[in-house]
Design goal:
about 25% strand, 7-stranded antiparallel beta sheet, 11 helices, Thrombin, subunit H
Length: about 500
């Protein structure tokens, strides 16, 4: 069995990007010291410092075969069903190997590295489990799958070889979510020098308390204005993956141009027919009767777009028949770092493998989620945020339960103003409420086509279904305007169909 080098956190104080550049992470007596620094905020000199950093890195890569550099602008989303299955199998192999070894696509034939990776995964899995309710096997599987996917995606293109003398400096931008930060911890535990540019926001105090990264307070949060990153200029191999645009949590603020509404405080009622004793048996989060403060939904300024041509819907159902489709609509409670419920929302079942479509503003910022299904006593807990997109305000969660998915409208007949619609969601925590209305207009909000409708909605409706009279999903409730009566917006079926492609 090969000896594995020991990785330890560098004790050298880092006060600037120049210090990060000069840090030497070579191996001495079987020990490599990794530098893990978090630069908080921006100033006028940041772009210049980054340019200087990459100029020096280019020279080092030209002269040193055992040196690599990469600036990582975003982490990819683990969304492909084949990738999910593959990294799920890697997790199983990791567990069978007593969490000491894992095979990496980035360096498949290096036993020493893969053993080092297996041990580092064990450490970050321990950090992930600290301070939260008991981590289920599915939660741990999802976490490890993400770590391995990010590792392989970001290093396959640059890490052509590995040995103990290899030096790597990795710069990552704005990793705020817990799992993203733990990925940066993983890289440091593998012996890479890591610099986090936290230009927009910083990690939570709880994450900072882990003591993994040094702090450099540079300036105020704001637009970093960083130079675009071109690996070719650093003589690096072409990147293997094409990643989507950087995901950021939607900004808060008012739903209209007027003053932002105050949060609504409610009490979630117990699940119908469920005793208080039963409620505490399967829910790892707080009691369902706990007080919940639901933050206002984000809004957008409406702009008029051209209305589509008039057509007539076919195969209409009765309201009673449409109400039965609520069995495929779920209520989502969002839990914060301490396990408290910080908000509620709705979601719809898509596909056949427990995938739930909801709004990104519902899912973002949550540490984990609990999901309630109609006529099901179980409260399903998950942290599997599979896919998300801030501009479209859509996200996909997954639970270990399969339901009949709701059909998505395919646009064979254009939607029209005045057309009847039915909305199903959980406004103010009122589980699976059904309301009716009409399509009142078609709007383009921040460059995205939206449907304006009158079916009453409230906080907690976000992510719920907007159906035509044939029972097809024409939109997902996304936002509303407090200043107007029954002025609500839904993300349309075209964006939904593209977003869930591969999950249906």
């Amino acid at each position: 069995m090969e000896n594995i080098i020991r990785i330890r956190q560098s004790q050298m104080p880092i006060h600037s990007i120049a210090d990060f550049i000069e840090h030497n992470s070579s191996v001495s007596k079987g020990v490599k010291e990794a530098c893990f620094v978090r630069l908080i905020g921006t100033n006028a000199a940041l772009a210049s410092d980054i340019c200087q950093l990459e100029s020096k890195m280019a020279r080092r890569m030209s002269n040193e075969p055992d040196f690599i550099y990469n600036r990582i602008l975003r982490l990819p989303v683990l969304s492909s069903p084949s990738d999910i299955a593959y990294y799920g199998s890697c997790y199983e192999a990791w567990v069978l190997g007593k969490k000491e070894y894992v095979s990496s696509r980035a360096i498949a034939d290096n036993t020493v590295y893969n053993r080092l990776l297996g041990g580092a995964l064990k450490q970050v899995a321990g950090m992930y489990a600290t301070g939260r309710p008991p981590v289920s096997e599915s939660m741990e599987r999802n976490f490890i799958a993400k770590m391995l996917f990010w590792h392989d995606s970001l290093l396959c293109g640059v890490l052509s070889h590995w040995d103990e003398q290899l030096t790597a400096k990795l710069v990552l931008c704005d990793l705020v979510l817990e799992q993203q930060y733990l990925f940066a911890c993983l890289l440091a535990l593998l012996g890479y020098d890591v610099l986090l540019l936290q230009c927009i926001a910083d990690i939570s105090e709880q994450q900072d308390a882990r003591g993994m990264s040094q702090k450099i307070v540079l300036g105020e949060f704001g637009n970093p204005g960083l130079l675009p990153f071109d690996p070719q200029k650093l003589m690096m191999p072409e990147e293997r993956y094409v990643f989507p645009g950087q995901i950021q949590a939607p900004a808060g603020g008012s739903r209209t141009a007027a003053e932002a509404p105050r949060p609504v405080t409610i009490k979630l009622p117990p699940h119908p027919g469920r005793s208080a004793k039963q409620q505490g048996t399967k829910n790892t989060g707080p009691s369902r009767s706990a007080a919940v403060t639901i933050p206002p939904r984000p809004g957008r300024a409406a702009r008029q777009a051209a209305a589509p041509a008039v057509s007539k819907a076919a195969a209409e159902k009765s309201f009673e028949e449409l109400a039965q489709l609520a069995s495929s609509v779920v209520m989502i409670a969002i839990h914060g770092a301490n396990g408290d419920i910080i908000g509620t929302g709705s979601g719809i079942m898509v596909g056949k493998d427990g995938y739930i479509l909801t709004n990104n503003h519902v899912a973002c910022g949550g540490r984990y989620y609990s999901v309630r299904i109609e006529d099901d006593e179980t409260v399903y807990t998950t942290d599997e945020l599979i896919k998300y997109h801030s501009r479209l305000d859509l996200a996909i969660l997954r639970i270990d339960q399969r339901l009949k998915p709701l059909p998505i409208y395919q646009g064979k007949a254009p939607l029209v103003r005045g057309q009847k619609v039915v909305a199903i969601g959980s406004p103010l925590g009122l589980f699976n409420s059904v309301s009716d209305g009409i399509i009142s207009g078609f709007r383009k909000i921040d460059g995205v086509d939206m449907i304006q409708f009158t079916a009453p909605t409230s906080h907690g409706s976000s992510g719920g279904a907007v159906l035509n009279m044939s029972g097809q999903v024409i939109g997902i409730s996304t936002a509303g305007f407090d200043a107007g009566q029954n002025i609500n917006l839904a993300m349309g079926y075209e964006c939904i169909s593209r977003f869930i492609s591969g999950f249906v």
